Amino acid sequence: MTAVALFELILTLLGAALCLSVAAGRLGFPPAAALVIGGMALAVAPGLPAFDLDPDLILVLFLPPLLLESAYATVWRDFRAWLGPIVSLSFGAVAFTTLVVGLCARAAMPSLPWAACFALGAIVSPPDAVAAKAVLARVALPRRLVTVLEGESLVNDASGLMLYRFAVAAALTGSFSVFASAASLAWLAAAGVALGLALGSCVNAAIRWFDEANAATVLSFLAAYVAYIAAERVHASGVLAVVACGLMIGGREHETFDAHVRRHATAVWTFVAFVLEALVFVLIGLALRGVLARMGGSLDAFEAALPLALVVIAACVVARLFWLYMAVYLPLLMLRKTHAPRPRAVVPLIVGWAGMRGVVTLAAALALPTDFPGHDPILVASFAVILFTVLVQGTTLGPLIRAFRLDPPGEPSDGQLDEPMARVVMNQAGLAALEGMSDEGSDLARHTRLLEEYRHRVRATTRVRDERGAVDAERAAHFAAALAAVRAGRDALIALHRENRIHASVLRTLEIELDQEQIRLEHLDGRTKTND
Length: 532
Known about the structure:
The model has no long low-confidence stretch (mean pLDDT 81). The protein is mainly α. Helix 3 runs antiparallel to helix 12 (259-294). The protein has 20 helices and no strands. Among the domains are: 20-44 and 54-171 and 282-404, Na+/H+ antiporter like fold (Up-down Bundle), CATH 1.20.1530; 419-468; 482-532.
C-alpha cells in the first residue's frame, strides 16, 4: 500500500467512525459496539485495499495518549482510597483469569502446549482501558465503582502484558525460571512507576514556564509518548510509566495550569481522545480482515478453533466473576464479621460484567510469531473474546445497571461539601476579598456593581443551598431567560455582520464572549453536554 493510499484509508476510517458514532448516539446504541460492527463490515467489504495492522505500532500510537488522558482525569485521592480493590483486580484477577483460561484451553485443546495456553490466558485476561472508558462514559454508576473500574483499567494492561511476555518466552524457549521472572516483574513495575513519576514532575515544572497554551498542550502529548517509549527502551513497563506520569500531572494541574492552558488542553485532549478511541474500535473490527488473511481465508480453521473460543469466553467471564465474589465475601466469612456492612450481591456482578477487552488484547494476539504453537486458534479465540465482551457485555451493561437500580453517582463522602455548599464558600471568599480591598482604601469604591454582583451571588447560592427544592422552578426560569438573551444577542450580532456593518474580526471577538457566557449559563443550569 502506498503512502497516499494509506492516508486515504485513514480518512475513510475516520469518516466511517464519525458516521457510526453519530448513528449510535441517535439510536442509543453503545458507540464502541457500533464501531466494532462497522469495522467488521469494512473488513469484508470488497475493494478495500489490504491493510496489515502492526501490533507494535498500535500499542505505541494509541495506548500512551489514551492512558495518559484517563490517568490525568483520575482523582488521586479516590484512587488511593480504593487502591486495595484496584490492585486485587489489576493483579489478582488478571493472574487468576490467566490461570483459569490456561487450564480450560488445555482441556479444550490438549494438543496446545501449556506455555501457549497460558499465553492465551495472558492475552485475554486484562480488561482494556479504552473499552472501559468508552462504556463507563454512558452508564450511571456510583463513584466508588467508577473509581475501581477506571483504576483497574489503568493498571491491568501492565500486569497482563508482563504475564504475556513470560508465557511467550517460555513457549518459544521451552524454559521458565520463577526467580528470574519475579526479578523481571519487580523491575518492570518499579522502574516503570519511577520513570513515570520523574517525568511527570519534570513536566509539571516545565509547564509553569509556558505562557503559550499550544506549547503546554504539545508538551503533555510528548510526555505520554516519551514515558511509554523510554520505559520500553529500558525494559520497564511503559503502561505503568504513562499512568504514573498522568497521575502526577493530573494531581498538580490545578496548581501548574492556568485557566487558558487548562481550557485549551482539555479541548484538544477531548478531540484527540475521541478520534483515537473511534479509530481503535474500527480497527478492532477491521482486524477481522487480518485474521482471515493470516488463516488463509479458510472457514475450516475457524470451525476448528470455535470450541476453544467458546471455552475461553466462558472461562474469562466466570473466572472474573468468581474472583470478585471471593474477594468481596470471603474475607467477611473468614473474619466472621457478621455485623459488618455487606455490599449488594449485584455489585460484583456489575464490576465483573464491565470487563471489556480491546486494543491490548488485539495487539498482543497479533504480535504472536507466525510459528508460535497454536497461533491460529489463539488468534481466533482472542478475537472472539473481544467481540463478545464489547458487543454483548458492552451493550447489556447499561440495562443491567438500570435494572438493579444502583445508588446514584456523585454523592459526596461523609464530611465533604456538595456543589451548592462549595459554591457558597467560593462566592463568600470572593466577596470577602473585594470588601477587604475596599477597607484598605483602594479605588474599588468606583466598582460598586462588582461588589453588588458578588453579594448577589452569595445570596443566590445560599438560597439554592438552603432551599434546593423550592427554587428549582425559579432557577430554571432564570437560566432560560438568560440563555434567551444570549441567543438574541447572537442573532443581532450575526445580522450586523450579514449587513456588513461590522468586520468579521469583531464578530469573532464578541461571539467568543457570547460562547463563554452560554457555556457558563448552561453549566450552572446543569445542561452541560458530556462527551460520551
